[in-house]
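User: Let's play a game. I give you a shape written as tokens, and you guess the letters that built it. Ready? Here's round one.
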């Protein structure tokens, strides 16, 4: 007998070897530690969003996507994500919008409500650790997420 997944999914992505690009996975790691042993939330991370991740959205009420961003105003930006095809739709690395569209196409139904938390990063060089500013932005994003999780 299979169990339903928790209603809330937090999905962070990025490369831990590329400086501030590690913000998504670091967010998930820190949130996991904060949530233990609370139920109702599943935390996943990966290097990038892929079509297969549409299966992780099944039976969810809400999804929080978390990624590092050069474009977000410091410390972070929050936006609603709607399904749509974009330039990433047919590639292996996808945008959250394209992933929601894959879900819609695959299941013939609307995906869960989705929010993107874009944490401001500045340095994405290979072999670098996240910078001090990025880590401060991470802390601010985690504080924001606590309220989102209660909503």
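Assistant: Ready! My guess for every position:
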């Amino acid at each position: 007998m299979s169990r339903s997944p928790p209603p809330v999914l937090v999905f962070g992505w990025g490369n831990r070897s590329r400086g501030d690009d590690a913000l998504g996975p670091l967010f998930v790691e820190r949130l996991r530690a904060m949530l233990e042993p609370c139920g109702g939330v599943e935390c996943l991370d990966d290097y990038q969003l892929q079509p297969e991740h549409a299966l992780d959205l099944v039976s969810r009420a809400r999804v929080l996507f978390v990624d590092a961003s050069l474009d977000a105003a410091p410390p972070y930006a929050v936006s609603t994500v709607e399904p749509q095809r974009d330039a990433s739709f047919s590639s292996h690395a996808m945008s959250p919008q394209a992933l929601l569209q894959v879900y819609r196409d695959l299941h013939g139904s609307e995906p869960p409500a989705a929010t993107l938390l874009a944490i401001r990063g500045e340095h994405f060089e290979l072999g670098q650790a996240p910078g001090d500013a990025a880590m401060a932005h991470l802390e601010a994003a985690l504080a924001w997420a606590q309220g989102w999780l209660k909503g």
